[in-house]
Design a protein that fits this description.
- By secondary structure, this protein is an alpha/beta fold.
- The chain has 2 domains: about 300 residues, 3-Layer(aba) Sandwich (Rossmann fold), CATH 3.40.50; about 230 residues, Alpha/Beta hydrolase fold, catalytic domain (Rossmann fold), CATH 3.40.50.
- The chain is built from 21 helices and 17 strands.
- A 9-stranded mixed β-sheet has the order 1-2-3-5-4-6-7-8-9, with helices on both faces. An 8-stranded mixed β-sheet has the order 10-11-12-14-13-15-16-17, sandwiched between helices.
- The protein starts with a helix and ends in a 13-residue tail after the last strand.
C-alpha cells in the first residue's frame, strides 16, 4: 500500500513538473530552425548572406579595371576610403629614440631601441644590423618586422631569427613589439591575462566610438618604425621592406597598402579573403576588421593591389586556419591586375605544406625575396643555426615594461585625450546647433532609417496561450529578409486597453513575465519582443572572444565590416514594433527597455519622440565617454557606433527627451551600477 501511494505521489509530481515545463516552453515562438539555421544563428546567417553579396559585387567591380589609368584611379580612391575608415593619422612628432644596449653576435649586432610613435607612447624594438668588419661602401636596405600575436613579442624565436637572417644577408631589420605584447603590456596590474588579440579587442571597443580602430595604433607604430629606420645612417631610406607573420602579416598587409616607402613586402599567414574567412572562422579581433570595408569594397586582395606593381610575395600555409582557398583567390586576382600593368613577375606566392607559423622555409623565402628586390641579388638563402637572445638580452627597458617609463602613455590614455577634445566640441555643437540637424547627424552615424523609409514588414500569428484575465498571442515579426523577431503580445480582457507598452529586455521577451503581468492586469496591452540577437535569437557564444565582449562578438564585427551597427539595426526593430502596436490602437507607446538594449531604445526614442509617450530605461549604459575613461569594459562591443563620440554621447540623446525619459539604475562600462547623486 505504501509503495502504491508513493508511486501515485511520484506520478503527480511528474505531471505537475511537466505542466510547469510546458507552461514555460509555451512562450517559445520560433521553430527549431528558420531558413535552415537555428534561431541562435539567425544573425550570423543574415550577415553572411550580405557579406556574400558584397563579395559578388566586389568581383564584378574588379573586372572593370583594365587600363593603367583605371587601376590608378581605383588605387587612389580605395586608399582614401581606407584611411577615412581608420581615422586620420596624427602629425609626426619627435621620435626621441634611445639605444639602451647592444648585443653582439657572429656576423651581426642587435641594438635595443625605444622610440616614441606619439608623445610618450613608447615602442620597444630590436634593430638587427650587419656586422661591418670593414668600412661600408654603401648603406643597407631596412626591413620592418611587425610581430604576430606572441606574448613575448620581439623576443619570440621566429621574429628574432628573421631579424638575424636579414642582417646576415646584408639588410637591417627593425623588429618591434605590438601594443600589449612583449614590453608593451598596458594593464598588467588590472588584468594580467589581457594581452594580444584579447587586449587589442578591448582597445577596439573604445576606439570604435572615437571613429578609429586598434589598427590605427598599430599602423602608426609601423610607419614611425620606418621613420626610425630611415633616420639611421646605416640604412638606405629608399630601400625599405616589410614582412610579418600572422598578426604581423595583418600589419604588413596594411602598411604595404598605405606606405609608399615600402618597396618590397612579404605578408605571412594572413592573406585569404573575407568570404572564406567569415565562413570558416567568423570575424577576428579588432585590428583585423576595418569599418565598412566590405561595404566600400576592400578585401584582402586589395591589400596586394593597392600599390601594384610593388613586389609582394604571399607566404601561405596549407593547414592554416586562414583558408588557403581564399589565399589563392586573392593571389589570382592580384596576379591578373599585375599582369595588366605589365609586371606579372612582381607578385608571387609560397604555399607551404604546414600549419600556421613562420617556419624556416618561409623565413628563407622571405629573405630571398627582400634580397632580390632590395639588394638586386637573387640567390638561395640558407638559414644557419641562430643563437637567440635571452629574455634579459631582448629587454629594452629597465623593468621590462614601457609603461614604467616616466610619463608613459598607453593607447587608453591616447583615447582619453581624444575624447576630452571631442567632448569640448560636442558641448559647443549641442549648445549652438539646430536640434533637428543634430538628430539627422545621429541618424546617419548610427545608420538608422526614418520610420517612413522602413518597410512595413510581415507579421505572423503562430499561437495563443490563455491565462486568467488575459491572453498571450505568439507572433513573428519579419522586418526584412532573413530577420525574425519572436514576440509575445499580452492582451488584457478589457478592451480597448488603457495604453500600449513595448517591452524589450536584454535576456529576451520572457525574462521578466511577472513585471509584464502586472502591466497587463492594469489593462495595458504589452508587446514583448526579442529584438534581433536577443532572447531566442541570442547567439549562444562564439569562439575567439572573451566574456568581456559578449556572446555575439564575431557577428557584431561582421556587421561592422558591412558598415552597420547593432545599435542601428536594433533601433529600427524597436521603431517597427512601435509602429505595429500603434496600428492596434491610435495612441502613443510607453517604451520599457531593460539592460544593454537600452542604448538602441534611447536612439529610437530620440529620433522619433512623437511615437513614444514615455521611455523607461533600467540598467542601461550611462555614457559612452565612460567607456573611454574606464578603458576596460564588459559586453559593450554590441553597443558601439563607429565615430559616435565625434558628434554625440548618450546623455545628448537623453536630453532631447526631457520629461518623457526615466533612467533607473544606470550602469558603467563594466555593467556595474553608477552611484547617482
Amino acid at each position: 500500500m505504501n509503495r502504491q501511494i508513493k508511486n501515485v505521489v511520484l506520478v503527480c509530481v511528474f505531471l505537475v513538473f511537466n505542466s510547469v515545463l510546458s507552461a514555460e516552453e509555451s512562450l517559445r515562438v520560433l521553430p527549431e530552425t528558420i531558413d535552415g539555421a537555428k534561431p541562435a544563428n539567425m544573425m550570423n546567417s543574415y550577415l553572411r548572406k550580405q557579406a556574400q553579396q558584397r563579395y559578388e559585387t566586389w568581383k564584378s567591380e574588379y573586372e572593370q579595371r583594365k587600363t593603367p589609368e583605371q587601376i590608378d584611379g581605383y588605387q587612389k580612391l580605395l586608399r582614401g576610403k581606407f584611411i577615412e575608415a581608420l581615422g586620420r593619422f596624427p602629425q609626426r612628432t619627435p621620435l626621441n629614440p634611445k639605444v639602451t644596449g647592444v648585443v653582439r653576435r657572429d656576423g651581426y649586432r642587435v641594438e635595443k631601441v625605444i622610440f616614441e610613435s606619439q608623445p610618450k607612447h613608447y615602442v620597444s624594438a630590436l634593430l638587427f644590423l650587419p656586422d661591418a668588419k670593414k668600412k661600408r661602401k654603401s648603406s643597407y636596405p631596412g626591413v620592418l618586422v611587425p610581430c604576430g600575436h606572441s606574448r613575448n613579442g620581439k623576443g619570440h624565436d621566429t621574429y628574432q631569427t628573421m631579424g638575424a637572417l636579414l642582417a646576415l644577408n646584408g639588410m637591417a631589420a627593425l623588429v618591434f613589439d605590438p601594443i600589449d605584447q612583449g614590453e608593451r603590456s598596458q594593464m598588467p596590474s588590472k588584468l594580467p591575462d589581457l594581452w594580444g588579440t584579447r587586449a587589442h579587442t578591448m582597445i577596439g571597443v573604445g576606439s570604435i566610438l572615437l571613429g578609429r580602430n586598434t589598427a590605427w595604433f598599430e599602423i602608426w607604430d609601423g610607419m614611425r618604425g620606418i621613420d626610425y629606420l630611415q633616420s639611421r645612417p646605416e640604412v638606405d631610406p629608399d630601400r625599405i621592406g616589410c614582412t610579418g607573420n600572422s598578426g604581423g602579416g595583418t600589419q604588413t598587409s596594411y602598411l604595404m597598402a598605405l606606405d609608399d616607402r615600402i618597396k618590397a613586402a612579404a605578408p605571412s599567414c594572413y592573406i585569404t579573403n573575407f568570404y572564406e574567412r567569415i565562413l570558416a572562422l567568423g570575424a577576428q579581433d579588432a585590428e583585423q576588421n576595418i569599418y565598412g570595408q566590405l561595404k566600400f569594397g576592400m578585401d584582402h586582395a586589395d591589400y596586394l593591389m593597392m600599390r601594384a606593381p610593388v613586389p609582394i610575395i604571399i607566404c601561405a600555409a596549407t593547414k592554416d586556419f586562414f583558408d588557403i582557398r581564399g589565399t589563392w583567390d586573392s593571389f589570382r586576382y592580384a596576379k591578373r591586375l599585375y599582369s595588366r600593368l605589365g609586371f606579372a613577375e612582381r607578385i608571387d606566392i609560397l604555399e607551404n605544406d604546414a600549419p600556421h607559423n613562420y617556419n624556416q622555409l618561409q623565413r628563407q623565402s622571405v629573405v630571398r625575396w627582400m634580397s632580390r628586390w632590395l639588394l638586386k641579388k637573387d640567390k638561395p638563402i640558407t638559414e644557419p643555426e641562430i643563437k637567440l637572445l635571452s629574455d634579459e638580452e631582448v629587454q629594452c627597458t629597465p623593468s621590462g615594461l614601457v609603461m614604467d617609463l616616466e610619463g608613459a602613455r598607453s593607447t587608453y590614455d591616447l583615447n582619453r585625450d581624444l575624447e576630452k577634445r571631442l567632448a569640448s566640441r560636442r558641448r559647443k555643437l549641442w549648445s549652438k546647433s539646430d536640434r533637428t540637424e543634430l538628430l539627422n547627424l545621429v541618424r546617419n552615424i548610427a545608420g538608422i532609417h526614418s520610420l517612413a523609409e522602413l518597410p512595413k514588414g510581415e507579421v505572423q500569428k503562430v499561437g495563443v496561450v490563455e491565462r486568467p484575465g488575459y491572453k498571450i498571442e505568439k507572433l513573428i515579426l519579419k522586418p526584412e529578409e532573413g530577420v525574425y523577431l519572436p514576440a509575445l503580445m499580452f492582451v488584457p480582457e478589457k478592451t480597448p486597453p488603457e495604453s500600449l507598452v513595448l517591452y524589450i529586455h536584454e535576456k529576451g521577451k520572457d525574462a521578466d513575465t511577472a513585471a509584464i503581468e502586472k502591466l497587463v492586469k492594469a489593462s495595458r496591452l504589452v508587446l514583448a519582443v526579442d529584438i534581433r540577437g536577443t532572447g531566442e535569437t541570442q547567439q549562444a557564444g562564439q569562439r575567439y572572444f572573451l566574456s568581456h565582449f559578449g556572446p555575439d562578438g564575431q557577428d557584431v564585427y561582421m556587421a561592422y565590416l558591412l558598415g552597420r551597427s547593432y545599435v542601428g539595426m536594433r533601433a529600427e526593430d524597436i521603431l517597427l514594433c512601435a509602429r505595429f502596436l500603434r496600428e492596434k490602437q491610435a495612441s502613443q507607446v510607453d517604451l520599457i527597455a531593460a539592460g544593454h538594449v537600452g542604448v538602441p531604445a534611447l536612439h529610437a526614442a530620440a529620433l522619433h519622440p512623437d511615437i513614444f509617450r514615455s521611455v523607461k530605461l533600467s540598467r542601461s549604459l550611462g555614457s559612452w565617454s565612460g567607456v573611454i575613461e574606464s578603458g576596460l569594459s564588459s559586453n559593450q562591443l554590441v553597443n558601439t557606433v563607429h565615430g559616435a563620440l565625434t558628434v554625440y554621447d548618450l546623455d545628448d540623446l537623453a536630453a532631447t527627451l526631457e520629461d518623457t525619459l526615466t533612467i533607473a539604475q544606470p550602469v558603467d562600462a563594466l555593467c556595474k551600477p553608477i552611484e547617482q547623486k
